[in-house]
Amino acid sequence: MAEEMNHAHPGFIGTYIFSRDHKMIGKQYLFTGLFWALAGGFLAYGIRQHLAAPHSPTLGHGVMSPDFYNTVVTMHGTIMVFWVAMPILIGAFGNFLIPLMLGADDMAFPTLNMLSFWTFFLSSVVLLASFFVPGGAAASGWTAYPTLSVQQGVHPINWGQVLWLLAVALEFVSMLLGGVNYITTPLQMRAPGMGLFEMPIFVWMQMAASLIFMLSVGPLVGGAVLMLFDLLFGTGVYVPEKGGDPLLWQHLFWFFGHPEVYVLLLPALGIIGEIIPVFSRKPLFGYKPIIWSTIAAGILGFIVWAHHQFISGLDPKAASVFSITTIIISVPFSIVIFSMIATLWKGSIQFTTAMLFAVGMIAEFIIGGTTGIINGSAAADVYVHDTYYIVGHFHYTLFPTVFYGTFAGLYYWWPKMFGRHLDERLGKIHFWGTTVFFNMTFIPMLLLGLAGHQRRIADPTIFPLLRNVQYLHVIATYGLYGMLAYQLPFCWAFCKGLVGKKDAERNPWRAATLEWLAPSPPGHGNFDKQPEVVAGPYEYSKPEEKEDFIPQWKPQEAL
Amino acid sequence: MLNWLPENISSFGKNIDGIMYLIYYVVGAWFLLAEGILIYFLLRYRRKSHPTAAYAPGKTGKAMAWVLIPVALVLLCDIAIDAKGTAAWDELKVDMPDTQELVRIEGRQFAWNFRHAGSDGQLDTADDVVTNGQLFMKVNDKVKFELISKDVIHSFFVPNLRFKQDAVPGRKINGWFDATKTGTYGISCAELCGGGHSYMQASLVVLSPEDYEKWLKK
After folding, report:
1. Which of A69, A78, A236, A477 could form an S-S bond across to A48 if both were Cys, CB 3.0 to 4.6 Å?
2. Of the candidates A396, A392, A377, A395, the residue with the CA atom closest to the CA atom of residue A453
3. CB nearest A341 (choices: B38, B85, B163)
4. Does the pTM of the predicted model rise above 0.90?
């Protein structure tokens, strides 16, 4: 540290606020994302509390009005996808790890990287502000379907929706700025000796996610600007009376929205793809097939979007095509998931908290994947579309991806990020509690949907068909209480992990990838000396070797 | 899991339930297999009982066969599901049956209104029967509909029929359904349409042919 001070030290503001250091930017993304996770979790509590007892007070606000309920649902979805999942999985882990895993001293464009975070911060401010404008925050669902989203309400301008659009557009800009780095850095800044196929799978996944994001988001940004015109100037792009078409938005939204699912999934697969080999002391099974499958799934992901619109008024003849592409996409993802499971075969498995969350993600994601076959089939989707079955299904894909993926990554890389370990005992309590109550929350939703429960209704008790299954809402709500309560051990471990002596070793897990060569935590510039790469990323338990792993780096003299 | 479905009362609903059951069993078997293998590996190869790992990077075709053969089987299942699903979809949403019965369904914030064509089979004529919140139909008789929306997107959902179709402002969507059992069933809106979304309910009244004629005359 002392030596570092002698270089032109960036000062407090340059170090902690307008930082160009990828590690600090990663942490900024992490803390902002976790702040939003608290907000999104609080809204989830609002939803569940209200649904379990629709005529009782919620959120300390008295009985929630249906309009306010719509706001809560809309903002819960928006926040969790755009302000929790993307900043943490991509912004935090991507920024912190990509240069370290490549043996680079920073991202290719550090200033752009800083700009990316501060654009994201601005988008957060705009989103937060939208709660306090006349009429309240957006209430037309996280998909903002027109003509509801552009309908004039009590107030002459629907400011909640306007700020929602601005915030989402800014968030996209920030991820685009970041994406430039995520693609350029791996292509340009790999340590000597590291070919593309010696990059850790995490880097591949981040690169693929950024590419998919960049290729899919353009039409939606354009569509969002047009919606802004509809709201502010009454242009009517999505309003039939003025010659527009509401279905146009759905196409633009889902052309982005489906690839977006993979934008979230791939980084999480990258995280567990690093963790599973380390804690089973096995090479990642089928490294190259996983990469090719990911690319194939990424491409297929661009031609499945209309499966969100089977019954939207789309020409029914088109549905079968999208149904087929949708179900076919199970093939590349089966290769990835089966390969992850095959990595465990004949391993020597150590159940650290990180490993528990990693295999937990697979176990739960399988439920998300298999339940999705029903709504992927157009005929069956006629029934389950827009029901709680869908709510259950996508939470089974997104919750494991976003939260199990994040927790796995935090327990694993925390020593590198903060120089200390997260408490393993608290971590295990955290894992088991979260897992039990997660299932208790979302299995009832799958069943509610099958019982004919449509989505996004504020009061299920008025439907005779749903009165008999209202108790499932109550179970799900208790499930959420449990899930929230079991985040407390994590919060405690998190706080403990930020203070005290930095006693983590450089390579506590005996892992082979380059980030473990750097000090814990790495200083400015990351490595003591430029690393040279002599091996692939997953050389564990190679026969006739003294150690049970070969690090990627050429041994350096101790400094 | 599928016994949570409400009673089915339509002819095409049998096929929709059939495809759901097919997927349920096929995918259920895969689910159990995948979770079973995952848990078996986790227990069998935990460090205590398996201290040294084997080196198996899965680089050879022979090793990858362990992944690729199951994946090929997944693909076969996909094709079977797609084939059956496409047939059921086409029957309901693509092919239009020949029938006299016609009704116009209009969604608006926050109600369903219905215009029954009456005995002349023409809409917007003198013998139309207009109802608010109640759709009447004859049992075992196919009904063609025109679905429109006055304001925002709604979705016409009748769980017991296994039927759902969005109503989109600016479009007239044609389709059909039938009911094989008399009685009164719930109709709801499945697309978020504003503050009254929850309250947008109506009922489907399925009558015997005699009762239907009597109702028409009233």
Report:
1. A477
2. A392
3. B38
4. yes
